[in-house]
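Z., the sequence and structure:
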Amino acid sequence: MRWKCICSYDGTDFSGWQSQPNGNGIQDILEKRLAFICGQPVRIHGSGRTDAGVHATFQVFHFDANWKHGADAMVRAFGSNIPKTIQVLSAEETDQTFHARLSAIRKRYEYHFIEGYASPFDYRYVLSLGHKQLDTDKMNTVTEKFLGKHDFSAFAARHDDSSSENTVKIIHEMRFVRRGNRVTFITEGSGYLYKMVRIVAGCFVQIGLGKADGDLLAHALESGNAAQNFRGECLPACGLFLEKVYY
């Protein structure tokens, strides 16, 4: 039996989604619980690897296991003896052809900023800009240039496992939304390279702060060489959320 599950987590205290030698990956924690539930080791497969400190409201994973007690019982079983900052929201039996990563056709990420300082209750989930303010109108004039199919290799961090990954991605949506002193970077695409969302958002922050020209960023995208033309910092993980995975 193949099971598809949706989970959410506060990534602050974990070493990312992927299994780690120290056992602090979210995958490690879910697999440990699943081994107890099923009475044997079970490998799970996620829709993607969120990095250390990155959050998710909608991470999808699948696994194969013989479980005869139904989906609701599966969710309840996951609810015990795992950190409260990880929650399995749903479970359903699915076709053997379903694969959490390979079947995904689109992913949505959001990065959250606050102009000012975050409260003690949400500083783990936003990037505080202090006295700085973002010109979101100027930023949104450039996001339009990122829509469509592009090679994003210049906007990804080096990663040992990424040498064979296709660096061409399709971006369906990219924009900045302001609600008072809170700004959200929204991007939806066919997939993303290692730390790509945080690097692209960092580039746009330089534009929004008036420290860089938007045409320079557009040229970096077209030339495929951000290192020489334009490079924003990779923003901290705290503000990034995996919001949705589409199949």
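Strands lie at 2-9, 45-46, 55-64, 86-94, 106-114, 127-128, 148-151, 168-179, 182-189, 240-246. The longest helix spans residues 26-38.

Let me know what you think.
H.
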